[in-house]
Amino acid sequence: MNEASLVQSASRVLRERLPGGWTQRIRLEERAGRPDAILDVTGPDGTKARLLVETKAQLVPRAVADIKARLDASSSTPALVVSAFLTPSTRERLRAANLNFLDLTGNVRLVLVRPGLYVETTGSDVDPSPKRQPGRSLRGPKAARIVRTLCDFDPPLSISNVADSAKVDVSYASRLVEWLSQEALLNRKPRGAVESVDAPALIRRWAQDYAVLTVNDARSFLDPRGIENLVRGVSEGKVRGRYAITGSLAANRIAPIAPARLAMLYVDDVDRVASRLGLRPTEAGTNVMLLTPFDDVVFERTWIDKGLTLAAPSQVAADLLTSPGRAPSEAEAILERLEKQPA
Questions:
Q1: 255-286: per-residue pLDDT in tens?
Q2: Among 22, 144, 172, 335, which lies 20 to 30 A Cα-Cα from 164?
Q3: What's the predicted TM-score (pTM) here?
Q4: Which phi and psi angles does 337 have, rounded to 5°?
Q5: Per-residue DSSP letters for 204-256?
Q6: pLDDT of residue 135 exceeding 70
Q7: How far does CA 66 lie from the centroid of its chain?
Q8: Is residue 134 scored above 60 in pLDDT?
Q9: pLDDT tens readout for residues 62-95
Q10: Is 186 exposed, middle or buried (CB count within 10 Å of its CB: 0-12, 13-18, 19+)?
Q11: Residue 336: Cβ-neighbour burial (10 angstroms; 0-12, 13-18, 19+)
């Protein structure tokens, strides 16, 4: 879509979302060194505001800071960033930078002081015309292993370090890391090592493409004597083979909020573990979930607390973010703990 078509479509989207009595007019600016377009918004009393329009065919989160700096340096006039589609992470960056934005799916934020105006509407979170580009999703075991590597190891990390730790080929690691850099989830030198990682933001982004109860093979059980009985059995060694506790039970050992009401364990053999722990299959009153993992990464970087093997905090947080009930709040407590850890 060329600039003229983008501006024309943006005008239509905005017109449909302004309150009654408000009008708008966008005109292209063709002189070099000028904004891409000028937007005039007029209130019911005739008061008018002018905005500079910055058009972008595609905008990645990392580029928002540059746009903000350039607009602030050139003029004190309010601005509106227009694109065919803005991802949720890009919109979050724009909002944090206090920039107005609009995309053609209807994601709009327009805030004016005079005349006083606040418009915020939601369009699509999914690009209606996605380009076929590899490495732009965190679905699947390979992406999960890279996320876990980036969250679990201290930078700097070379691409070969990431690939080796995640057990993926270097070309895939390079593509995914570059995309994560564009999404402002990590910082790296040009074609160089990863220098820092925003682990909480990266885990939240992973949770958009991951769901603990569907990606893993999850089965529901009841321990008639309660979760403490299960904990006692696990700590006494009744589980043979690999296991890793995740979910609320693990959260209570990392950043406790409230007593766990559901125990979740990754295990190699669900039937054998259920039998040894005396669990009953159930569809109602579940207090134990046994998970056959989507990948062995769930057993990596585990740690021991009072005789229990717990999944890595990064895995626990992702699992809680995609679990029902109060689990996402427990995840946020873990992410807050990760955020405070020194880089």
A1: 998 899 999 999 999 999 999 999 999 988 99
A2: 335
A3: 0.76
A4: -65, -45
A5: HHHHTS--HHHHSEEEEEE-TT-HHHHHHHHHTT-S-S-EEEEHHHHHHHHS-
A6: no
A7: 22
A8: no
A9: 999 999 999 988 888 999 999 999 999 999 999 9
A10: buried
A11: exposed
Cβ atoms of 162 and 119 closer than 8 Å: no
**Residue 276, phi then psi, degrees to nearest 5:** -70, -30
Specify whether the CB–CB gap between 186 and 202 falls below 8 A. Answer: yes
User: Domains of the chain by range and CATH?
Assistant: 3-121 (3.40.1350), 141-207 (1.10.10.10), 212-340 (3.30.460)
DSSP 3-state of 275: helix
Q: Tell me the per-residue pLDDT of 20-61, one tens digit each, with 9 for 90 and over.
A: 999 999 998 866 567 889 999 999 999 999 999 999 988 999
From residue 33, how far is each of 71, 218, 265 by CA, in Å?
12, 58, 59
pLDDT score for 190: 83
Return the closest-CA partner of residue 201 out of 329, 335, 61: 335
**Tokens for 112?**
């004016």
Give Cβ neighbours of residue 332 (< 8 Å, ≥ 6 apart).
none
The whole-angstrom separation of Cα 249 and Cα 231 is 9
